[in-house]
Design brief:
This protein is of the alpha/beta class. It contains 14 helices and 29 strands. The chain folds into three domains: 86 residues, Immunoglobulin-like (Sandwich), CATH 2.60.40.10; 347 residues, Glycosidases (TIM Barrel); 93 residues, Immunoglobulin-like. The longest helix is centred in the middle third of the chain and has 16 residues. The protein is globular, with a radius of gyration of 24 Å.
């Protein structure tokens, strides 16, 4: 190993700058072939970072000496045929990723793990506009709060303008050239059905704005430094004026590839676009984009975000680039919505091959007006949807949202400008303290105290389901395949009767209070358990190992926190 070789931590980031010696267009492609210590060759794309500067970033996954060689298209002096070496060493980790490695889907396809096999519980928070609109110090305030409350993922947008976000805090936008495609007098809702806007024949590519992303670099790095996974939303696809809809496919693919090149060495997952229906020719368009952007070579896990109470995924089953499935149960509060959450498509389709993790990435936001009642969602209605979502398919995780945080709201006494019917929002600082966010800490701590990754829904565990006639009373139940522990969520207290024949004989019953995190011993009974009151409770039936928190990954999380 060369003594003067650049040293990079295992699962850290190698970054190299290349300077073009003569004029090079921003569209010039740079590729770097990296040869690992074991002899594997990995090709990554570089990215333009303004002027004559190109950069390449990579997360090394082997210790030892790496070699690299560049190729540029067209060939440009300073970019083409550059060679070098760097060394990777195992170093003490200061967060979960440096200790255990990046996130990937487990071998059984049901949940997420780190590279070293440690299970990763997705406890997400929604801050769509935060990374773009926040100041550096405000972003740090937000991340510190979410880290301290046990969140493990934050998801946010990486492109502006989009509805509600005209530019970043400095007035910068993601790219130039949108005027070649956006023609307001000709935009119609036909775009959202997958048809192409008139004007796409203009053969003028967008020009990435490096200043926008140089600022965003710090926000993404800060997410990881707090031990949080960055779920980066690459485009948006709800309205005709959103970049995912008005840009032609080739430009969407180029934008996505740029972001992957820039942030692929961070600890991330990718959300291809947001709030789209993915139906018909529109769905076929996003399939093609996904294949073009992620169909070649290794990448962080990829998904894409649909509109509310919509399940297009049976038509995406064979899409190899789609690593996990997210859905949006949305912000409704009528009986149909409640039934959709606990007994809808996720509960019916999780067995369909191939297996993928299921995540409700948008249950009702706390403080958001319910679509039907027009009353704000409380911590209870938000929490109820979240527990149902964790038990309607094999447990992988869930996302929380606070009305005011998701939109990075700063206007006192007003609704978000792009979503006026969501209701008056608290400022993001006020909404950080909503009780539901603290209750997510209790939830995360509870699940990480048991082997949550072995849980699968089992409605047969109950002798009687009170939710058949009243969906708000639905009791969700799940158990491990070995029957050494089980969970029931009772949204209204009361009692539950268990078929003990499905479980081991030596299990001990315990009540978990999702509002306070308190645990109480359950009255001894073989089959019938009565909750302490008429509020919501979680019943845990577990052997001594799981009841004492030794069956889960809490010790791994604690060690990661203590080493920061």
């Amino acid at each position: 190993m060369l003594a003067n070789a650049q040293s990079v931590p295992l699962w850290g980031r190698w970054e190299q700058t290349f300077i073009a010696s003569n004029s090079a267009a921003p569209q010039t492609e740079l590729y770097v072939d990296l040869t690992s210590p074991s002899g594997k060759v990995i090709r990554i794309a570089g990215f333009w970072d303004g002027g004559a500067i190109w950069r390449a970033r990579f997360m090394p996954n082997e210790t030892g000496q790496w070699q690299y060689r560049t190729t540029s298209i067209p060939s440009i002096d300073g970019l083409d045929r550059k060679e070098g070496v760097f060394a990777t060493r195992r170093e003490p980790g200061n967060n979960r990723f440096r200790q255990h490695g990046p996130i990937q889907v487990s071998s059984n396809g049901r949940f997420f793990i780190h590279t070293d096999g440690t299970p990763f519980f997705w406890m997400g928070d929604t801050v769509w506009y935060g990374a773009i609109l926040s100041s550096k110090s405000d972003w740090e305030t937000y991340l510190t709060d979410r880290e301290n409350k046990g969140f493990s993922v934050v998801h946010f947008n990486a492109v502006a303008p989009r509805n509600g976000v005209a530019a970043d805090e400095n007035g910068e936008v993601s790219f130039e050239g949108a005027e070649h495609y956006v023609r307001p007098n000709r935009i119609s809702r036909i775009v959202s059905k997958g048809l192409t806007l008139a004007g796409l024949a203009d053969d003028k590519p967008i020009i990435i704005n490096p200043r926008f992303y140089q600022r965003l670099d710090q926000r993404v790095d800060a997410v990881n430094s707090h031990g949080l996974l960055a779920a980066i939303v690459l485009t948006w696809g709800l309205r005709p004026e959103d970049s995912g809809n008005y840009l032609p496919e080739s430009e969407v693919v180029r934008l996505v590839r740029y972001l992957v090149a820039r942030y692929g060495a961070n600890h991330v997952v990718w959300v291809l676009t947001g709030d789209n229906d993915y139906e018909g020719i529109n769905g076929e368009r996003w399939k093609r984009i996904g294949r073009a952007a992620f169909g070649h070579g290794p990448h962080a896990p990829v998904t894409t975000h649909p509109i509310g109470m919509h399940w297009p995924w049976e038509n995406f089953r064979d899409e190899k680039w789609l690593d996990f499935i997210v859905y949006q149960s949305g912000h409704g509060d009528d009986s149909d919505t409640l039934r959709w959450i606990h007994s809808g498509p996720p509960s019916r389709h999780w067995r369909d091959p191939p297996a993928r993790p299921f995540i409700n990435i948008e249950p009702p936001y706390e403080g958001h007006l319910g679509y039907q009642s027009r009353k704000p969602h409380t911590d209870y209605s938000t929490r109820r949807a979240i527990y149902w979502s964790l038990l309607n398919a094999p447990t992988a995780g869930v996302t929380y949202g606070a009305h005011g945080v998701w939109s990075w709201h700063t206007a006192v006494g007003q609704s978000p400008t792009d979503h006026p019917r969501t209701g008056i929002a608290k400022t993001w600082r006020e909404a950080l303290a909503f009780p539901g966010s603290t209750q997510m800490h209790y939830l995360e701590d509870f699940f990480n105290s048991i082997a949550w990754w072995t849980l699968q829904p089992d409605p047969e565990l109950l002798t009687h389901q009170p939710g058949l006639n009243d969906p708000a009373a639905h009791i969700s139940s799940a158990r491990s395949e070995r029957g050494d522990f089980a969970i029931c969520y009772l949204p209204r207290g009361g009692q539950v009767e268990i078929r003990r024949s499905l479980l081991k004989n030596d299990l001990i019953a315990q009540w978990f209070n999702p509002r306070t995190g308190q645990r109480l011993s359950a009255t001894k009974s073989r089959t019938v358990f009565k909750a302490p009151d008429q509020q919501d409770w979680v019943l845990l039936l577990a052997d001594e190992r799981n009841r004492r928190g030794q069956g889960g990954s809490r010790f791994l999380k604690a060690s990661a926190k203590n080493s920061r």
